[in-house]
Amino acid sequence: MTLFKNPVAKKRWQRFRQSRRGYYSAWILLGLTLCSFGAEMLANNRALLVVHEGKVHFPIYGDVLTGKDFGLDYNYEVNYRELKKSLSNKDGWLIMPPIPFGPLETDLIAGDFPPHAPSVDTRHYLGTDTSGRDVAARLIYGFRTAIVFSLLLLVFNYGAGVAIGCMMGFWGGAFDLIFQRIIEIWSNIPFLYVIMIVASVITPGFWTLLFIMAFFGWTSMTWYMRTATYKEVARDYVMAARALGASGPRIVFRHILPNSVSTLVTFVPFSVASGITSLTALDYLGFGLPPPVSSWGELLKQGTENLEALWLVGSVVVAMTVILMLVAYIGEAIRDAYDPRKFSFYE
Amino acid sequence: MTGYFVRRFLLIIPTFIGITLLVFAITRVVPGGPIERLMTQIQLGGETGSLERSQGGGTLSDEQMEELKRYYGFDKPMLSSYAIWLKKVLQFDLGLSTRYQDPVWQIIKERFPISIYYGLTTLILTYAVCIPLGLAKGMYHGSALDSWSSAVVFLGYALPSYVIGIALISMFAGYWDIFPLGGFISDNYDELTLWGKASDIFSHSVLPLIAYLAGSFAVTTLMMKNSLMDNLSADYMRTATAKGLSRSESVRGHALRNSLIPVATSFGSNISLLLGGSFLIETIFNIDGIGLLGYEAIIERDYPIVMGILVISSLLYLLGNILSDICVALVDPRIRFGERSGS
Amino acid sequence: MRNLVSILLATFICVFSLDVKALPETLPTDLVWQTNVSDPIFADPNAKRGGRFRTFVTTFPLTLRLVGPDSNGSFAGYMRSNNLSLVGIHPDTLKPIPELATEWAFGSDGHTIYFHLDPDARWSDGTPVTADDFVYGLEFMRSKYILAPWYNNYFSEIITGLVKYDDHTIGIEGATPKPQNEMLFEYSVSPVPAHFHKLDENWVRDYNWRIEPNTGPYLISEIRKGKYIEFTRKKDWWANDKRYFKYRYNPDHIRVKLIRDLNIAYQYFRKGELDTFPLLMPRFWHKKATGDIYDKGYVGKIKFYNDVPQPISGLFLNEDATPLDDINVRYAIAHALNVDKVINTVLHGDYERLETAHDGFGDYTNSSIRARKFDLKKAAEYLDKAGWSERGDDGIRVKNGVPLRVRITYYNSGHNDRLVILAQEARKAGIDFQLQLLDASAAFKQIMENKHQAAWMGWAGGGLSPRYWEFYHSDNAHKPQTNNVTNTDNKALDAKIMAYRTATEKETRVKLAHELEQMVHDQGSFIPTFKVPYTREAFWRWIKLPPNHGTRTSDALFDPLGGSGGLFWIDAEEQERTLEAKDDGDSLPPINITDKTWVIAP
Predict the structure, then answer these.
(1) Which residue has the higher pLDDT, C462 or C235?
(2) In whole angstroms, what is the distance from residue B122 CA to residue B184 CA?
(3) What pLDDT, on the 0 to 100 scale, is given for residue C467?
(4) What is this model's ipTM?
(5) How far is C395 from chain A (nearest CA, A)?
(6) Contact criterion met (CB < 8 Å) for A196 and B30
(7) What is the per-residue burial (b if ≥16 Cβ within 10 Å, else e) of C488-524?
(8) % residues pLDDT > 70 (chain C)
(9) How does residue B59 score in pLDDT terms, banded at 50, 70 and 90?
(10) Do B147 and A343 touch (CB under 8 A)?
(11) Inter-chain CB proximity A298 and C416 less than 8 Å
(12) Range name among A195-209, A224-238, B107-121 with the lowest pLDDT average
């Protein structure tokens, strides 16, 4: 781990820790992300642990257990919430997750029609959506999809953008011109069309969608990187490095990249945020992930159509705002940390 | 440098052909063209019953399908119909909309004023708010003002504009009845006095503008703040202080200009936003803008309109990119475009 | 001269291209002329004329043409219903009533009809409506220039001839003999004003926004593109005092405003800027349409049961796609669809189960058929029989290592929640539904090319009797661009369909229709889902309805036009009172009507 032995990196880490807001945000976001990876244990209609007639089951990560396995009369998956009620102490016992509903499971409450309002009694802490699915469960699973999606998208976009943009700025000339044309052509293709074509051949899944978004998303980062590289190349120290006989790659990796990355880093929070928002927008329009996948966009759509069920729109909007603000604070802190010059205001 | 920009202008031509050819090809691949749309309309039912029955139905012979294809221009091979289309465009003829049967240019032209009005107002207000706000945030980094404005700006950014739109219209137009329920002007606009017209447009545009603006502040503000902070710690600022300039003088005189560079880079690409406009906001507020026109054209497979909007928006975008470079060159004389810097 | 040519042309087409016996050259003398002036009137004599009725559409019309591309949007209804037919249908008794024709008679060959036209009938520009306009109408509908191949087909293959006997008498010939009642509506030609049209290759474009003279009560008086269209009632409409048109079409103006978003449209209604609002959707009826304006009686709600053909909506299984070629799998899917749960959850118990493909056709409907109920035991039996007896680790049935997956193609994102519930429930039976949402055009193309497995869709219903040939005859199977999307290919069914098509006696046809319906049910390739046997609307207090509220066939109560429409009126005094009460916050007696006059006993 040379990265952390590097005194510069150490200093950056210290500076990052010093901006409290960003530092705490990072921990919170990391915690939320990790939690969402264990979403199955937070919100699920399967029990965490079942002890039945001396046998121990962990239904979440195992095969489907049918009603017959527990001596009930049906051959499809057992309903653990009812099983819990029916199990007497001597048969066994089970523990349900804190939110005892799966994200795809529709729960019917007698005497009322979905969407059901939030209630502690029914254990729908954020209510249900219009099909009777638990909003909290869908928020958690939807968050996992969104954050993974947007991080992967970030990696793809920045990888391509930094590489190509840097080359464009450093080499200039014909390479620059050709790629400029390609980018210009790229950015003008109506995105919806491509989604529609793909959707007509296959239902766009997570990876297809990610691929399409990355296919169109790399251009803006390339554009910024190109300008930044141009700026750096024109600086005296690059001249000096050249004069000293430094090779092209060395100049790029030792001088240009580290210096232009600080501009780049300011975009990271926006990229993460825009990854989340554009997935949400696509889902909202119905061009995103296919139902019944949990997604914030779908929940938002339901929310805006059912404004009187405020818990729908409220929970998505609050969740989105919180996540995006956390990301933004982290971005600010990273930027502070990366800035090679300590802020000194000359008064 | 001049040579570089002349070359850039000339390069618009191949890029333009590249863009239009690609999208033209895509329109040929998209499943469900105007012909399928026609059939869908005739045959699909809603949810409620009715005694009436359309006399459509049944199947079409191959000749009849050919006839329809000819009408919509799908009978020729892709490249030759592209050539025909391009030739018409060069004569400033964008063709006829397959839905409205009106000339595409006329349809787009009718919507220009509205889109430009919203685009320009949004652009001006964004810069008018973001540059000073970014400056203030940069100068007083870490202060309460900085924290709170970040929170507000990000709240706006986090809420999708259409959600803001629906919330605004439900509260201020539906519930409290302060503003009208959408549209760009009232039905009796022509009968109003000049002052009446101005206030009519104003009252119609307050809510959509808020929805447009809410999301646009964050990016520019933070960009401005960060680049100012980069420059605040630069050596020339020390020199300026040593010269005896006060902080605000040195910011105004030196740091400001340099920190506008990244903002300037983004200016060019904003030009094409002038004609953008979110179709979702336009749907909610019943505004007949270009964004909505383009979205409906895509959904309803009105290819001449799609291509027409593409022609205009891509030209604007290409010009905008050049403009960006000119802006960057103007504010930062050190940048030399197009000169081979590698050894 | 022109008309002469067109007659010759029409006769030529009949004689040579279709090889059926043409209409006689002179009017047969042995005709028995019929009319109907004895059925009850369904409008209210107390109706008051005047006022402006304000309503909305969500998309602005793309054309004002009645035929040709894009003439089928949501606005088309307004245009069509301002053109009267030869004969109308009495909305309660379903018997023919005079519209443009005063009398009609049936030829002895069983597929010709003769009409006496109403000499009072006028186009909106004052020109009388004569037989020539009908002759031109047929020529027009057969023209290539109108770019409406479906009409071209219909008016040459189904309607084979039209002859003018004098200025006010015409004869129309259809392709095959049918029951008289059905012939009146199937073999009908609408007049087209010959003095207005010039048919050439530019017709579609040139006539896109031109206001065609019509025969109905209203004419467009103002168009503001992208904003609204206003209709104004003709000052002295020729049919004002005709028996079945009296007291109807009361507002002086109808303003159809463009509001693109339904939720926003509701805000307009709540504010009183629209007079009525459809509340069919459960969430509107139950959750939105509540509050002060309803409690204080400014706005009323009405639920009105009607009795009309229902759209054929449900799940169409493609028999050409495995595993749906196995009838046991089809039955199992039907038993694994928990339609009742959908009705009782997302549909608020408001919709009803559609039991059979053709519902609401009166005698033709085979009401003894019951759709297959959600029944996991039966589903399991059928699946075991079909060899899908094993279950995989995820609970999905497997056969030879292949899981039991069915892809459902659909195009209405509003149905997401319904399908999600069905998919969840079907997992219990071990069937995995993969939902594929496409936009309407793409979905329709996929289905038309038979590339779907199962299609979740609704076909427009309508008409007086069900149609089977289009949907189930093997002539249309395994072929793209046909309505037989289930690719049903059953010889026994074919024979019966042909018998049904050629039968002329209503009794035989009804009997055959019942048998056909049973066979379709046995085929199991169509699973019926929902029907909505009523209309629900909200209206401001000043909109008045007759005591009977609507008619048996009213698909909307506040339709200002159309065969069963135009019954309401605007009460200006009541409007003043209501608005005053609203300003002062006073309460008026609330209006909450449920009309079950036409409810069909289950």
Answers:
(1) C235
(2) 15
(3) 86
(4) 0.75
(5) 6
(6) yes
(7) bbbeebbebbeebeebeebeebbebbbebbebbbebb
(8) 96
(9) low
(10) no
(11) yes
(12) A195-209
Chain B residue at shortest CA distance from C309:
B49
Q: How far apart are CA C383 and CA B37, in angstroms?
A: 38
CATH fold, domain A2-37+137-343, is: MetI-like fold (1.10.3720)
Give A112→chain B minimum CA distance, Å.
24
pLDDT for the residue A347: 43
- Predicted confidence (pLDDT) per residue in C536-558, tens digit: 999 999 999 999 999 988 888 99
Beta-bridge partners for C469: none
- Residues of chain C found within 8 Å of residue B188, distances taken between Cβ atoms: none
For B104-331, CATH gives 1.10.3720.10
R_g of chain B, CA atoms, integer Å: 26
The Cα–Cα gap between C49 and C246 comes to: 11
Q: Do A341 and B233 touch (CB under 8 A)?
A: yes
Contacts of C442 in chain A (CB under 8 A): 196, 199-200
Q: Is A187 near chain C, with CB under 8 Å?
A: no
Query: A323 vs chain C: nearest CA distance in angstroms?
Result: 27
Indicate the domain borders of chain B.
104-331
What average pLDDT does the segment C507-527 reach?
Answer: 93
Phi, psi of B164 (to 5 degrees): -60, -45
**Tokens standing for residue A46:** 């399967």
Q: Which residues of A touch C376 (CB under 8 A)?
A: 74-76
| pLDDT, position C245 | 93
* Alpha carbon C144 to chain centroid, angstroms: 26
Dist CA C108 CA C101 (whole Å):
20
The chains in contact with chain B, meaning 3 or more Cβ pairs closer than 8 Å, are A, C
pLDDT at C16 over 50: no
- Buried b / exposed e along B168-200 (16+ C-beta atoms within 10 A): bbbebbbeeeebbbbbbbbeeeeeeeeeeeeeb
Whole-prediction pTM:
0.82
Contacts of C147 in chain B (CB under 8 A): 67-68, 71
Maximal CA-CA distance, chain C: 80
The continuous run of DSSP H or E covering A142 comes out as helix A135-171
Q: What are phi and psi of B117, to 5 degrees?
A: -60, -50
Residues of chain A above pLDDT 70, percent: 89
| Spatial contact of C319 and C526, defined as CB atoms under 8 Å apart | no
Residue C417 to residue A131, Cβ atoms within 8 A: yes
- Cα B172 to Cα A231: distance, rounded to the nearest angstrom: 48
Regarding beta strands C397-399 and C390-391, do their DSSP bridges make them parallel or antiparallel, or are they unpaired? antiparallel
Do residues A340 and A327 lie in contact, with contact meaning Cβ atoms separated by under 8 Å?
Answer: no
pLDDT at B169: 79
Short-list C341, C380, C360, C401, CA closest to C529:
C341
Query: How large is the average pLDDT for residues C514-521?
Result: 94
Residue A131 is nearest to which of C282, C393, C421, comparing CB atoms? C421
Separation of alpha carbons C399 and C415, rounded Å = 30
Shortest Cα distance, chain B CAs vs residue C453, angstroms: 18
At C50-71, the pLDDT tens digits run 999 999 998 888 888 888 877 7
> A58 vs B51, which has greater pLDDT?
A58
Average pLDDT, chain C: 88
Calculate the CA B296 to chain-centre distance.
15
Give the model's pLDDT for residue C393.
81
Under 8 Å between Cβ of B23 and A184: no
Residue B57 scores a pLDDT above 60: no
Which site among A15, A266, A335 would you substitute to test the B interface, given the most B Cβ atoms closer than 10 Å to its Cβ?
A: A266
Q: Quick one: average pLDDT of C589-596?
A: 92
pLDDT 10s digits, C344-384: 888 888 889 999 989 888 888 898 999 999 999 999 999 99
- Tell me if chain B has a CB within 8 Å of the CB of A208: no
